[in-house]
Amino acid sequence: MTITEFRHHKPPRLDALSREELATYFTETWELYEWLFSSIRADGAIYEKTDPLRQPLIFYLGHTAAFYVNKLRLAGLRDGALHERFDPLFAVGVDPASAGELEAQSWPTEAEVRTYRAQVREIVLEQIETVALDLPVTESDPAWALLMGLEHDRIHFETSSVLIRQYRVDAVERPDGWSYAPIDGGVRTSDPIAFEGGRAAIGKPTDDIVFGWDHEYGHLARDVAPFAVASTHVTNGAFLEFWGDDGYGREELWTAEGWAWRSSIEARAPRFWVVGDDRPSYRAMFDGLELPESWPVEVNRHEAEAFCRWKGEGWRLPSEHEFAALSADASLIDGNSAFADAYNLNITYGSPTPVGFMTGATTPSGVHDVFGNVWQWLSDEFYPLPEFKTHYLYEDFSAPFMDSEHGMLAGGAWASSGASASRFYRLWFRPNFFQHAGFRLARDA
Ligand SMILES: [Fe+2]
């Protein structure tokens, strides 16, 4: 396969869902995940933890499969376990505050997990043939369990890609057809763009035409004061100045929590920079590259906040409602999903692009990469919208994380696809956590 052969990234419309479309979307989602995992080549590497705060990749190979089985059972579409041991073993991911909270596990062989996956694939395809499809499909229909499994799979394509990116280079090999964006191109300057402010609203309508997760539904309008935002993400080139100015060595630039994190792992540079005695280089998904100065820098929220303080002049992260205001005139498909060909979303490239490279991703106001490329950290902590209620098939999808320990992100990344490549998607992570995520500067007008 090549990146361009995976073409069905957009979630199907709930008001026009056919079995054929569902089967195509499922098959492609499944193969995309296998394509990503085909990169893990070194003996035993799949049992290694590439991030101390997450399970090894063998867990994630089993996890997306077990999820389908467990949700089909909850929805009443299946009686009984498929595998007494694997269904629960691979059921729940982790979000520990520290590595010490993760218990050691003994894992089955990769061959056993692959056999389990093959069985699940057949079960899901059978369900797609037989499940009741009353249009529009709603969140109370059993078919929602299938859609949830599909979108969960796509979320884990992205999160697993971040884990795989943290293998040593000789443990992985770039899968056939996986292409990185050019190093050069895009725009060279990042100009401040003024917004008048006014009323801005977030939240996904309950009758929206594509699948949504519990925390997206609702409506919250707020008054946004006049503000300015940088036209591009902060690039590796811009972050190099902060790094060269001893940004990682000056406590006064960091929040107390950020400095504690920096000190605990002795962070000296962004996670995907490779720092030796010389100029930093870069770790793409499977290869080392010369540092692409024109690509957005990928950092956690502590690093983004330290950069803002170093930059001074009132620069800070934008709020979720400011993001809604600055993206209000972005071009969208169906008023919902960001358009695949216009943005670096939906694995258009297997990497970030230079900022401003995707010309269709620039708004009429001049905001480049308003969606896509890499996620954008926001200033908000993760919180529920007013009408928030959990979904019975996945009670603990978002609710346990709505606290001051998790920060929000918006906009999606090159690896985001399906329902998470949407203007409604609200992502959250701990501020010390790495994703394909960077930031855009904002400040009061
Ligand atoms: Fe999961």
Topology:
Blueprint: H1 19-37, H2 57-74, H3 86-89, H4 110-130, H5 143-164, E1 192-195, E2 198-202, E3 220-224, E4 227-230, H6 236-244, H7 256-265, E5 273-274, E6 281-283, E7 288-290, H8 301-311, H9 320-326, E8 332-333, E9 337-338, E10 375-381, E11 407-410, E12 427-429, E13 437-438, E14 442-444
Parallel strand pairs: 10-13
Antiparallel strand pairs: 1-4, 2-3, 4-14, 5-6, 6-7, 8-9, 10-11, 11-12
The structure holds fe (ii) ion.
Molecular structure report:
The protein folds into 2 domains: 3-171, Up-down Bundle (Four Helix Bundle (Hemerythrin (Met), subunit A)); 192-235 and 293-444, paralog of FGE (formylglycine-generating enzyme). The protein has helices spanning 19-37, 57-74, 86-89, 110-130, 143-164, 236-244, 256-265, 301-311, 320-326; strands at residues 192-195, 198-202, 220-224, 227-230, 273-274, 281-283, 288-290, 332-333, 337-338, 375-381, 407-410, 427-429, 437-438, 442-444. The protein has 9 helices and 14 strands. Helix 1 packs parallel to helix 5 and helix 2 runs parallel beside helix 4 (110-130). It has 445 residues and is an alpha+beta fold. Helices cover 27% and strands 11% of the residues. The relative contact order is 0.16. The strands form 5 sheets. Strands 12-11-10-13 form a 4-stranded mixed sheet, with no helix packed on it. The protein starts with 18 loop residues before the first helix and ends with a strand. The mean pLDDT is 95. Residues 63, 93, 152, 156 line the site of fe (ii) ion (FE2).
